[in-house]
Design goal:
The chain is mainly beta and 509 residues long. The chain has three domains: 189 residues, Jelly Rolls (Sandwich), CATH 2.60.120.260; 185 residues, Sandwich (Jelly Rolls); 86 residues, Type 1 dockerin domain. Helix content is 11%, strand content 29%. The strands form four sheets. Strands 1, 3, 5, 8 and 10 form a five-stranded antiparallel β-sheet that branches. Strands 2-4-9-6-7 form a five-stranded antiparallel β-sheet, with no helix packed on it. Helix 4 crosses helix 6. The longest helix has 20 residues. It is globular, with a radius of gyration of 24 Å.
Length: 509
């Protein structure tokens, strides 16, 4: 059975599971820039502002905000406070040369991570990359005083491949589009347990391509939130319909749908203002989308989950994929995620009460539309916990304001008492049903949930989760793990995988 490498990592896996909820908050470095009055003060604090290969365009990193931009967005999309750093290409003249290596870099001071088991970067970011531009947003790591750098995060302007036949750092379906909001990057594999660590924020080869702004840089050992072990609602639009979700609002010709009326999805391709990340590289991907590109009438529509019973949950988390082009912020424009209350007990509709704006793209940071942003978000919504009358809604309003695509919606939560490690279906026992779930989602990466077999909370379903399942086989509410469970677990997972393979080869008709 390819991919099953045995249970040799069982001790490590159990240790990881036990530590998954431990926010020890060892801080390796932080700076909110509010203590620096000018660029000289930033440099005096240990930062380095570096222009590489004699750039033609002087988009040097600065705290002076030459383009008078609004602060970058925080975790819910609202602006940060005080000073921030920005490389503002649109506030400059001329253009850098593509494939020249011309770059505007910001290096953190050196910091140590000796003894670190995890290293995470958290920062408030707006990487507004021109949809038909050439800019690249990189975060790189050095552990040798800045002599060598390794890339940890990258976003590329989707139009870069059209610039003079560019051959370096091209966009693809894993790195295209800008970023907006709180950015969390796992640096553990690159930066853990080193004496001299530095990060480099890089605005690479911009050509009057708007800007990258960053604030509230925090490097610690605390991972961002992970989905809860109770799954209340999930929709991936896999059957080509809105599934369990509904639509309300103006309901014009261009409302929320799964039919892609504007032809914004090109399988496997990257284009300047298209859906470049969600659904790729499937031939016929399914997702929900509202597309008002090129229309001369307004939309004001809501994509809504059902009313949800969250009364048993002490924590609620909303996860979804988002890709779209932000409205220009004229009066009445909106691109936001809402927690709403079914105040008339008639089911979700646009007139229901808004309890909280969970995420908001309309913080007035943007000067232009057309610039696509992508994110896989997981947002904590404490206001929803303990309620049985709420739903989530994606609200898009504006005229000729481009598009918004949403996929993989999941509302999860936590109960005061966690399930036994390995209890994927949260039924009180660790058994063959849980093994079947692990088999179903085996080797899923990036975004796996507890209910899919991600028991160590790292976003993947792999050998470590199988080891946790094996170690707790037969346990549950008051139960005791049976000795030497490895053979039983492997047999159960093997049987489930074999069944799945057989169904693929001989599909039911």
């Amino acid at each position: 059975m390819r991919g099953l490498r045995g249970l040799g990592g069982i001790v490590v896996a159990i240790a990881l599971w036990g530590a998954s909820g431990d926010a020890s908050a060892a801080v390796w470095f932080e700076d909110d820039f509010n203590g620096h009055a000018d660029d000289d003060a930033v440099v005096a604090a240990g930062w380095a502002i570096v222009d590489v290969n004699e750039p033609i365009e002087q988009s040097t990193w600065t705290i002076t905000n030459p383009g008078a931009r609004h602060n970058p967005p925080t975790a819910d999309g609202t602006p940060s406070d005080g000073y921030f750093m920005i490389s503002d290409s649109d506030a400059q003249y001329y253009s850098n040369l593509v494939d020249s290596g011309m770059s505007h870099d910001l290096h953190t001071p050196s910091f140590g991570t000796l003894g670190a088991g995890a290293v995470w970067l958290h920062a408030d970011v707006c990487a507004q990359l021109n949809n038909d531009g050439a800019a690249v947003f990189d975060i790189d790591v050095s552990t040798d005083g800045g002599q060598t750098w390794t890339n940890a995060f990258r976003r590329v302007a989707p139009g870069r491949f059209t610039w003079n036949g560019a051959t370096t750092v091209l966009p693809d379906n894993t790195n295209a589009d800008g970023y907006y909001g709180r950015l969390d990057v796992d640096l553990t594999g690159l930066a853990a347990n080193h004496e001299d660590v530095r990060l480099r924020v890089r605005h690479f080869e911009p050509n009057q391509d708007w800007w990258i702004a960053i604030d509230n840089v925090l490097i610690d050992d605390v991972a961002p939130p992970r989905p809860g072990w109770v799954e209340v609602f999930a929709e991936d639009f896999g059957d080509g319909t809105l599934g369990g979700m509904t639509v309300d609002g103006l309901l014009g010709e261009r409302t929320w749908t799964t039919t892609d009326p504007g032809g914004k999805y090109n399988p496997g391709l990257v284009d300047t203002n298209y859906v470049n990340r969600i659904g790729h590289p499937e031939v016929a991907a399914n997702f929900a989308m509202i597309d008002n590109d090129g229309r001369d009438f307004a939309v004001d529509d809501y994509l809504m989950t059902p009313v949800l019973d969250l009364s048993a949950l002490s924590e609620v988390l909303l996860g979804y994929e988002s890709e779209g082009s932000v409205p220009v912020n004229d009066e009445g424009d909106a691109m936001r995620v809402l927690l709403m209350r079914d105040d008339d007990a008639n089911g979700p509709d646009a007139d229901d009460e808004i309890l909280k704006v969970v995420f908001d793209y309309s913080a007035a940071l943007f000067e232009y539309d057309e610039e696509p942003f992508y994110a896989r978000r997981l947002l904590e919504v404490p206001e929803a916990a303990g309620r049985d009358d709420v739903f989530f809604a994606w609200h898009f309003a504006g005229a000729d304001d481009w598009y918004w695509a949403v996929d993989n919606v999941a509302v999860t939560g936590k109960t005061p008492t966690p399930p036994a490690p390995g209890d994927a279906n949260n039924d009180g026992g660790v058994d063959a049903a849980d093994a079947a779930i692990v088999a179903q989602f085996w080797l899923k990466t990036g975004g796996a949930r507890w209910g899919e077999g991600d028991f160590n909370d790292d976003g993947n379903v792999d050998d470590l989760d199988l080891a946790i399942l094996a170690a707790n086989w037969g346990a549950g509410a008051g139960g005791t793990a049976v000795p030497e469970p490895s053979t039983l677990v492997l047999a159960a997972v093997a049987a489930a995988l074999a069944f799945r393979i057989a169904r693929r080869r001989c599909p039911l008709r």
